[in-house]
């Protein structure tokens, strides 16, 4: 089964061609600057290809990707007819979707109805589906949602303490995101644990976007992102949790519109806002080494925020069997892992500094042998979850 995975953003489009049955990736890449000019970066085997192109819309971008996969230097398949299914990453499934879904007109309509909850992402996701239907009319499309894994949260965890009619009228509640990553990592962690039942796992997905999830017996019971991804941890450019009073005060003082405050909190805050330099943690760590105190503050805030969420989710789970780190920061920054885990011995989490500092890129246990709970670093694989769900939906339909 050859699955084409698409992650369509507002001006970019990531793709992968994968056989989920044997977990083999044939090609992957990204089209960027769609609507501006256009560039395609394509990887196949150990080779890389860069193509400058005119990509006025997502349609030209998908056409270019399909052409690159089938002809010329970057070719990996003879024809687009070899693609048996297409899996689309969809940002927001609201309460309508409790699992991945075969794309039909009704499903597209339901995803469109959720656009107010994800105004930047859902329109691009739907566009990707419609273009694929047009270019490959015989190939089934499947929608895989970032929110679905968190649909198991109990009501007392997902409700905001606002007037109840806000939930009834507008479905204002916590949804959570990064679901495919939290599912993949917690599932891997369950496999790595000695016990397979009653597992209490906290997953820290730490990248440019970051979230923490409490997973009980394989099900999400709480997560740090909310109605939108801006809630929870401090991220690359997102603020994470900020008191509502501070938001109202900023809007009043600076006479900000809804769009302006949203831009401020989603694009100009987080690591970028505090460091004043960059949203990239590696660069902030370098700045800290060079004595920049704002970089030091950003690093301290990032780690402290994660630690607070870990502690609160250990309480929500009535204990912990495994703490997992994933994402660009979680997989690569031994320092952040060390700061987060320092002092958590009382919760049964004891980090082994030697294992933590070993540079490896496979799944591994970095807790001491005597630690009662495990600490895992697990490289995430969201594309695999999308491809595998697509395969299962298509073969069962
Ligand atoms: P992602 O969004 O998962 O690709 O993660 C991107 C983030 O991971 C950026 O903030 C990077 O600076 C950070 N990152 C990647 N490698 C490292 C590293 N070796 N040390 C610290 N941060 C890293």
List the helices and strands and how they pair.
Blueprint: E1 3-8, E2 13-19, E3 24-32, E4 39-44, E5 47-52, H1 58-70, E6 85-90, E7 101-102, H2 105-113, H3 122-135, E8 141-145, H4 155-158, H5 164-170, H6 179-192, E9 200-206, E10 210-216, E11 219-223, H7 244-254, H8 258-267, H9 270-275, H10 281-289, H11 293-316, E12 322-326, H12 327-332, H13 334-341, H14 353-357, E13 364-365, E14 374-377, H15 382-396
Parallel strand pairs: 1-6, 6-8, 9-12, 12-14
Antiparallel strand pairs: 1-2, 2-3, 3-4, 4-5, 7-8, 9-10, 10-11, 13-14
Helix pairs in contact: 1-3, 6-15, 10-11, 11-13
The protein binds adenosine monophosphate (AMP).
Protein name: Acetate kinase
Cofactor: Mg(2+); Mn(2+)
Main location: cytoplasm
What's a concise summary of this model?
GO terms for molecular function: acetate kinase activity; ATP binding; magnesium ion binding. The protein is of the alpha/beta class and 397 residues long.
Characteristics:
Nucleotidyltransferase, domain 5, binds adenosine monophosphate, single chain, ATP binding, alpha/beta, 19% strand, 397 residues
């Amino acid at each position: 089964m050859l699955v084409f995975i698409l992650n369509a953003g507002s001006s970019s489009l990531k793709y992968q061609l994968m056989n989920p049955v044997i977990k083999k990736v044939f090609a992957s890449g990204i089209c960027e600057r769609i609507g501006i000019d256009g560039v395609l970066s394509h990887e196949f085997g150990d080779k890389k290809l860069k193509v400058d192109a005119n990509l006025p819309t997502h349609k030209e971008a998908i056409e270019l990707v399909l052409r690159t996969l089938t002809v010329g230097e970057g070719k990996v398949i003879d024809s687009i007819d070899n693609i048996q299914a297409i899996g689309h990453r969809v940002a927001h499934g609201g309460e309508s979707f409790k699992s991945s879904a075969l794309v039909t007109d009704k499903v597209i309509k339901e995803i469109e109805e959720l656009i107010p909850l994800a105004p930047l992402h859902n329109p691009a996701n739907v566009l990707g589906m419609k273009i694929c239907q047009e270019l490959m009319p015989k190939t089934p499309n499947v929608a895989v949602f970032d929110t679905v894994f968190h649909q198991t949260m109990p009501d007392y965890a997902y409700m905001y303490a606002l007037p109840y009619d806000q939930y009834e009228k507008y479905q204002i509640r916590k949804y959570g995101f990064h679901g495919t990553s939290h599912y993949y990592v917690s599932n891997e962690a369950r496999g790595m644990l000695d016990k397979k039942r009653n597992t209490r796992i906290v997953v820290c997905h730490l990248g440019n976007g970051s979230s923490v999830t409490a997973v009980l017996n394989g099900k999400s019971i709480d997560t740090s992102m909310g109605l939108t991804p801006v809630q929870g941890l401090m991220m690359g450019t997102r603020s994470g949790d900020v008191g509502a009073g501070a938001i109202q005060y900023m809007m009043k003082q600076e006479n900000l519109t809804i769009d302006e405050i949203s831009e401020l909190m989603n694009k100009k805050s987080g690591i970028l806002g505090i460091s004043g330099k960059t949203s990239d943690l590696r660069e902030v760590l370098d700045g800290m080494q060079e004595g920049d105190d704002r970089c030091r503050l950003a690093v301290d805030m990032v780690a402290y925020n994660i630690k607070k969420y870990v502690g609160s989710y250990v309480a929500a789970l009535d204990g912990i069997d495994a703490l997992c780190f994933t994402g660009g920061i979680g997989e690569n920054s031994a320092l952040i892992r060390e700061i987060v885990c320092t002092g958590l011995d009382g919760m049964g989490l004891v980090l082994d500094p030697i294992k933590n500092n070993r540079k490896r890129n496979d799944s591994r246990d970095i807790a001491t042998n005597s630690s009662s709970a495990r600490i895992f670093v697990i490289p995430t694989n969201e594309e695999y979850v999308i491809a595998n769900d697509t395969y299962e939906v298509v073969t069962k339909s």
